[in-house]
Amino acid sequence: MIKAGIVGGTGYTGVELLRLLAKHPDVKLEAITSRSDAGTKVSEMFPSLRGRVDIEFVQPAPEILAGCDVVFFATPNGIAMKEAKMLLEAGVRVIDLAADFRIRDVSAWEKWYGMKHASPELLEEAIYGLPEVNREAISKARLVANPGCYPTAVQLGFLPLIEEGLVDVDHLIADAKSGVSGAGKKAETGFLFSEASDNFKAYGVSGHRHLPEIRQGLSLAAKKEVGLTFVPHLTPLIRGIHATLYARLAADADLQGIFEERYRDEPFVDVMPMGSHPETRSVRGANLCRLAVHRPQGSDTVVVLSVIDNLVKGAAGQAVQNMNIMFGFQEQTGIDIVPILP
Amino acid sequence: MIKAGIVGGTGYTGVELLRLLAKHPDVKLEAITSRSDAGTKVSEMFPSLRGRVDIEFVQPAPEILAGCDVVFFATPNGIAMKEAKMLLEAGVRVIDLAADFRIRDVSAWEKWYGMKHASPELLEEAIYGLPEVNREAISKARLVANPGCYPTAVQLGFLPLIEEGLVDVDHLIADAKSGVSGAGKKAETGFLFSEASDNFKAYGVSGHRHLPEIRQGLSLAAKKEVGLTFVPHLTPLIRGIHATLYARLAADADLQGIFEERYRDEPFVDVMPMGSHPETRSVRGANLCRLAVHRPQGSDTVVVLSVIDNLVKGAAGQAVQNMNIMFGFQEQTGIDIVPILP
Amino acid sequence: MIKAGIVGGTGYTGVELLRLLAKHPDVKLEAITSRSDAGTKVSEMFPSLRGRVDIEFVQPAPEILAGCDVVFFATPNGIAMKEAKMLLEAGVRVIDLAADFRIRDVSAWEKWYGMKHASPELLEEAIYGLPEVNREAISKARLVANPGCYPTAVQLGFLPLIEEGLVDVDHLIADAKSGVSGAGKKAETGFLFSEASDNFKAYGVSGHRHLPEIRQGLSLAAKKEVGLTFVPHLTPLIRGIHATLYARLAADADLQGIFEERYRDEPFVDVMPMGSHPETRSVRGANLCRLAVHRPQGSDTVVVLSVIDNLVKGAAGQAVQNMNIMFGFQEQTGIDIVPILP
Amino acid sequence: MIKAGIVGGTGYTGVELLRLLAKHPDVKLEAITSRSDAGTKVSEMFPSLRGRVDIEFVQPAPEILAGCDVVFFATPNGIAMKEAKMLLEAGVRVIDLAADFRIRDVSAWEKWYGMKHASPELLEEAIYGLPEVNREAISKARLVANPGCYPTAVQLGFLPLIEEGLVDVDHLIADAKSGVSGAGKKAETGFLFSEASDNFKAYGVSGHRHLPEIRQGLSLAAKKEVGLTFVPHLTPLIRGIHATLYARLAADADLQGIFEERYRDEPFVDVMPMGSHPETRSVRGANLCRLAVHRPQGSDTVVVLSVIDNLVKGAAGQAVQNMNIMFGFQEQTGIDIVPILP
Q1: CATH of residue D158
Q2: CA-to-CA distance for A79 and A11, rounded, in angstroms?
Q3: pLDDT tens digits, one per residue of B266-288
């Protein structure tokens, strides 16, 4: 039984972490902090947790968190980079669900995130927490950078093709669609029900913060800089990301076989039969990426469809998966959830 | 470990039963039958169950079902009444999620359901499976009539008031709103996304089949015939029922205390603080009824708000709860699910 | 051709007024003001108006508005009461879409709206702009208080019963459901897509600001204080209100005939055949209230179903209807819109 | 004043045609036919049309339709090809909203639509009714093939680039997302609210019937066979198509200038400023295509965003636009509708 703390748990990744940790047999939730809501019972803010989580939000207090075995940062970008160091020095292992430690190139990070990095010296140590790529390193990591939601869906879809050198990596296209919970729980006009419902739009076409993160991961796999056009869209779902990936084949190959082989032992990636159409709801609430490969009309363009629940495999679920790996628990523990459908 | 069978599991109560039983530690799913889809893998029809349920739908076969300890009927009305008898005689315990055994008055049942009852002799034995009323009888029952979704929400909301004789039972009003999954998975124009989305309407105001079921339960509690106006509405949710209940107070009382006392030991009923507004999403995916009592403006009209997930506490979850009671399992086993929010 | 001004047109009633006035043949939109968005083109904030409305938001400037024939206040509560007087003195006719002039009893208004009224002397002059009740007075009014959305739906549904003395007015019940646009365009967490979608809840059960407004209108019709329990709910629609009204019959009568007779000459009230179920989408985008009367199971409880589009007959459309009456235009001008379905 | 008939008006394109024609000043709706619903009042099936359309559906009767000036086929594929000929011979002009006359290559049509074409001799005469390409020919046409919804959005987005020879036409990508009304009003399980709501998926990736139609139009513009990967998706909107188009630049150019120039005189195409993100709701209910051009990160990949309302510019609105052109009416007549937002 390890002791876990959560910093900043009032958003959607926070409540999702709570949902998962509340039933995790090896974890005791020691503390959850919130500057603005200290003193409020967690179950008052999230009635879904009545009878499940009995603690209150507390003021961020180093001494409390320092007594934990693991601390999750479910904070906005720019918090973990200031507070992780102290915790690491106290022997706490840290999983950051925000973007502070995802990009290895400090200047790129600072450009895309519009602030100075507070702990550039930690970037080298931080492990990018995509278990399907870095499981071994994660198991030993002190500091894990939990991947973004789009980057999870897009990388898992492209990796088998790129690792095998099958596609032209200079002109990759990722057309991705996200449910609205990806924008978090901030009160912003654009995410009101009356604005986002019965509506579909692209956004950030000129450049989205997940672009450099995806590009970094794919370039590592390609062993060269990749060229990527990434167009995110907002679609009226609460949860779910659907990435439609396009690449031009440089060589012929058994695409289905390659995907199945790549993910044969992965408990949280499901390669569907060739030509399938994975639906976002088929992973709703679950820590799972479902993939399907297509080669429409037999042309030289391969299409990969990749779906995740952005709050689970795209955030809190993957964070618990990383924790399980870090502490040597069975990897499915606490996240072995059957998707809820309909 | 008991062996369970499901008859007719291709609808929403079927897939929900599968979601719950797939993780129930004391149950082995022996067979699931479907006339129209025999031979299809369950996980092909419901990709959410890929890797979870590996069996195929099979033709209804008495000998297979007769070897089960319990059989769930997740069929349309009118099937269980024909097939339950044979199973009971074979020593199988039966839980009917349809309406065949819910109404004790055969002629009333035949009027509302528009068909002749095939096993009127079983009606006396059948136990109405609302554990908060009939737990003891359920534990010994061979045949359980699992309550309807509206009846569950409405009865749990009205019972404390009626049992204590606090309200005028001649003029009860239940204004109930249901998500669209309550209509099942039948292909009907009125439940198409383009019809039911961004729309709200009442239906069946002149008389809905759940009216006699609710009236029967409330009349038993009142020990006299109650008068009830029941108006169901269709609202653009997938899951969820919200019942808004109105009654005129005949006597003054500590309403909140009475509700809390009534449900003190109930694992699946949550009485919120006086004046709360339970949301349907706060029970999404969970076997739970949340209630709140109001007395607006101090008038003599009491308002009770009652929410359930129609597919869980209103159907499959309650069926598993009944099974747990029947077989002496710990009542929460397999249905101790944290609601999914957002 | 009259000149119209809009104060505070950046919200949903504002954009809806613009949609309607943009095509009104007798109105020239002279100015639209906004403190926060002065200098922004209207069509930049509302791309739906590109090519339709070419002006910019301007700072509120008395001299511009004073040159208008009519000024609409599409502002939060508490603005019109400060600014209407000056305009009235300049000979401008004023239609307030907020609540400042709806309640005749100053102290009641101040209690419910939590502020001191700035122009109590105007309350007597202000005409409550429900044309189906006050058409004659509206035609001569300088100052019209445009009704609230719930009050429009509830009053139109109850009025025929109350005016004819057919029901017990001490125990009226209005169970009302509103789409989310009724909450306006303010950025508040509770109205985010991820909060309000796939969810249903009651709110303000202990007391909603529209309660005294409805009670005032019904009491005038009843010629005595009525008793009303009003429970509003939030439902995942963008537009639409569905009011389900309950009353106990004090006398027998031809209910359908009374409703049809009452609204025979009303261009914007449609009495459907007895037993119908009006849907909110059947009035989407249109200035229309559809009603249906029920007497379920022949009991002494009458049920009236009433639907409107909260932004049209519940706000901007009714405001234009009032303007048409005030200026002697044909009443349907500019608001003779066919509902959009699906 | 011309006389119009509608064949098969019980679906969504039918009710949308009725909404538009009900207010068209130059058109008298003479008859609307339906085999299954003859005798039903139109306003009973579509309560939104109560008080607007007073006629009944009638049995298809050649003599009635032959007396019309124009007949719209709002039927499933395969009907117009059988019935158009007789009407044309009677001097009636025909607009087919289905696909019967869209593809000039009979064998391609028969392959994709899975039936034998009943009037191949009419294919040469039929004009493809995309006014932005064929306005002149439409004005003289007897028989107009109204374009599909996806083809309208995709062609309008790609045409300026292809006509100017700016892109590699061998590898075009159209990633398109459609609201559910595009699937029509047929009762099919997959389009139920409980299936299509809160869900996102691709479909028909291996080949969709709109692919040959789009390819034909783009190839005509390119003056050579184009290569196109077309991936349609289903998104939980009622109305709306969002096409995200990708092409590789073969030459440098003032992309924004080219789009603005191409559509300068088009009343129903709106080129937004470079870098804009058109939303589907910004054209909801209106006969309009809004476009925006992007060149993300300055790469050689151009991205075009194109939105329409699939039932208006993608179906009934474009049909009325074609009718206006055919009969010499002012092109905006009856379809000069301001989009409804929110």
Answers
A1: 3.30.360.10
A2: 14
A3: 999 999 999 999 999 999 999 99
Chain A residue closest in CA terms to B238: A342
C206 vs B contacts (CB less than 8 Å): 275, 294, 296-297
Whether residues C238 and A196 touch (CB distance < 8 A) is answered with no
Q: State which amino acid sits at residue B200.
A: F
Both A71 and A119 in one domain: the answer is yes
Residue A160 lies inside a defined structural domain of this protein: yes
pLDDT digits (tens, 9 = 90+) for D174-227: 999 999 999 999 999 999 999 999 999 999 999 999 999 999 999 999 999 999
Rounded to whole angstroms, how far apart are CA atoms B209 and C86? 60
* Whole-angstrom distance, CA of residue B246 vs CA of residue B227: 12
* CATH number assigned to the domain comprising residue C15: 3.40.50.720
User: Which pair of tokens denotes residue B207?
Assistant: 């008389």
Distance to chain A for C48, nearest Cα, Å: 13
Do C191 and C222 lie in a common domain?
yes
Place of tokens 């739970």: B288
Residue type, B317: G
Please identify which residue in the block is written with the tokens 């074409």: D117
| CA-based nearest residue to D335, from D274, D280, D261, D283 | D283
One domain for residues D153 and D295: yes
Indicate whether B74 and B182 sit together in one domain. no
Residue C58 · residue C67 · CB < 8 Å: no
Judge whether C333 lies within some domain. Answer: no
pLDDT, average across residues D134-138: 98
Other beta carbons less than 10 A from residue C223's beta carbon: 10
- Residue D162 belongs to domain spanning: 149-310
Residue A142 lies in a domain: no
Same domain, A118 and A161: no
Whether residues C338 and D46 touch (CB distance < 8 A) is answered with: no
Residues C182 and C222 grouped into a single domain: yes
pLDDT < 50 stretches in chain C: none
Q: Is B339 within the bounds of a domain?
A: no
Q: Supply the pTM of this predicted model.
A: 0.98
Closest Cβ–Cβ partner in B181, B183, B193 for D236: B193
Q: In Å, how far from its chain's centre is CA B307?
A: 12
C-beta atoms of B296 and C230 within 8 A? yes
Residues C162 and C75 reside in one and the same domain: no
Which residue in the set B19, B281, B338 is minimally distant from A338, CB to CB? Answer: B19
